[in-house]
Amino acid sequence: MGKNYLYISDSYDGWRNLATDEWFLDHIGPEDVVLYFYINRNAVIIGKNQNPWKECDLSAMERDGVQLVRRISGGGAVFHDCGNLNFSFNAGKNRYDKDRQHRFILETVQSLGIPCEFSGRNDLLAAGKKFSGNAYCARGDAKQHHGTLLVSADLSRLQNYLTVDPRKMQSKGVASVRSRVCNLNEFVPSLTVEELLYGLLLCSGNDAALAVTECAGGLEPFVALMNEKAAALGMTRTSFANPNGLDAEGHYSTARDMAALAAAAMEEPTFRRICSSRAVTIGQRTMENHNRLLRQVEGCVGLKTGYTRAAGRTLVSCAERDGCRLIAVTLRDGDDWADHAALYEYGFRLTAPRGAVQTVLLRLHRPVTAVWDAFAWQERGDT
Fold it and tell me: Which residue segment(s) compose the domain that 102 sits in?
């Protein structure tokens, strides 16, 4: 089975980012998928067949510190700045699906409340205006689909660096171009991959969870990847059947396994930042974190609430005090908020073991149905 990768560039250098994009295409496995995001700072990106000496004002670009970068796909010139998010799907021949890839981008934007559609001419439109241009190429059995997402780009700057026939500019004009394109910040203030993660973790967005699977080639490959990761973490009594946690045949876990998963997840800085947020505002929509412990328990930094009819109330939480991290998990607990608070008061009175993460099972001694809880604690700074 192939693997699925998500890569977010930490560079704003157009030469490096486009070179990385090409490297992915040249090295992708026949069953693999790479979803790559990057932002270029002040660059004119030209198609593979364009003549820059004829079509670009190179002296103006040099004066303004604008990079000239050639991409490996066709099409015309575009201007990139930090208000433009770029994406690239690289896939082996058996995993490439252009319609699915377009659908992933559309559903991501739609999840922010922006109505959008595919135009049929390689463009994505919001309110009838283009916010994303797409291009495609192939090498051997590998294929690439990359494009732009205009978030808050300066739409007027491209004209400064192109040497277009004056008659064409007069007939078509910048005003005409501006009337046919738009930034997504006309609908919401910002658009990032992290916003989709906020929607998934803070609002239990099942539609967002399913949208994420599209970038991994579909539901089945993504679930297979989840189970592969669970096995690597030693979650021997866990089987995933979907990415959203809803009831399904063959979908189950234990408190101990959830504690192991939570301990691994809290090592990811982005995950920690998102799940510890009490609220986030995207456009006109404010999403509140359902985890009351963030407000009620000293040092609480997450994690996740959940409920289905079959599973009942479930809660995974994490708290940190004086360099010690504790994770608590309760299943089918009708008073989980109070139980987690009590568990932390108990746990922090103990001496946390040093070294690698350890898991200890505790049982709540209450007159109601017994609830099994898993504690995992970790000394910060240890590896």
Answer: 4-186
